[in-house]
Predict the structure.
Amino acid sequence: MNDADRQRRFDALARRYSDDLYRFAVWLCRDPTLANDLIQETYLRAWKALDRLQDPNAAKSWLITILRREYARTFERKVPPLTDIDGMVVEDDKSLTPDDRLEREQLREAMLRMDEKYREPLILQTVLGLSVAEIAAELDLSESAVMTRVFRAREKLKQKLQDQSDESASNTSNVHRLS
Amino acid sequence: MNLLEFKRKLMTEPGDTSAEMRAARAQDGEFAEAAAESDRFEALLADAFKVKPPEGLAEQIILHQSMHTESPTRWRRPGWFAVAAAVTLAVALTSFNLIQQQPHESLSEHLIAHWSHDGPEIMLLASRSEMIIPNEAERIFSSLGLAVDDQFMTSLRFVKYCPTPDGRGAHLVLDTDQGPITMFYMPNTRVADGEQTVELPDGMQALAVNVERGSLALVAAPDVDKPAMARQIASQMSFPQSVTL
């Protein structure tokens, strides 16, 4: 591969996958600034190892692997602190009602606080669209272990929404009793 | 597939489009209810996870790569060559965020690391990109408890969140009558003695001064009158809300 081909190939990888990888990185390290750095370092490593990517269809999982390794390497001894949810720039949908927005915020909050072992496979599935088999290969787990983790992750998030809903109903009922 | 298996599958692989799942989804009654409930939750989940990537992320990555690696082809392009000649790079390959998380980092160490990490690159990006979207800038400023006047907004070429010695701040590029300059706004950092000048490894100079809340640092060539510029910029900033940073 000559220099120009190499550069073209790299540019295509950046344009095709960087947005999704950034989303994954944000939920993985829970900090948009760190996520941006992580993405830059990931692609820098990808550039250096580009000749090793033989199958273009494997590019996405190859980049995910590099990103996860880079994350593990960077935070080997130090887990990044939980970021403030306000630091995340979410794609705002103007058609949402205040209740819809609240529900989404509650989910984000719950995701940020979720244990990484549940959070990571769920993000790989929902943000990057990986199948259970692909997640299992990426995380070096059995498929049944992945299924257990994504099941538990969804269960936790649903429970969180239910708790918030119950709390909100209880507050409304107390207000009615007082008035 | 019975109902229990179907519900379990919806919790583990809701996007599964196998014939078995399609058949289960096509059923009425409790199957249909379970599918509808799952679809609603998955849509909510997908929505909640929609984090907006930084504007021009792919271009930033390509730029970052071209500045950190030797690629003769890339640098032979006339545009890039001109840019390379204009910008002296002192890029730290280590993770800037890792550096800034180290305890007891002084303001001068931080400014050197911050500028070396991406200062020249951001200047370059700012010079090559369109003017930024005011709403996006206002959202960032507002989250930091900062407001700026129209003149400031007009001169703004780039803004993003960045780390500071004491939490989150903003990294900006402003057009001034003395050329583009970089500014770091650090809402939780105070400058000892109110003012500090830091010599940067590439010959640039940073001046950090206190403002009403926190401090700002300007990075420019040594011959630029940074104290006057800092006074002018500070007069365009206000701090309307009490926010917890």
User: Anything to note?
Assistant: The interface with chain A takes residues 8, 11-13, 15, 41-42, 44-54, 57-58, 60-62, 64-65, 68-69, 71-74, 95-98, 101, 139, 143, 161-163, 168 of chain B (CB under 8 Å). Confidence is low (pLDDT under 50) at residues 70-95, 98-104 of chain B.
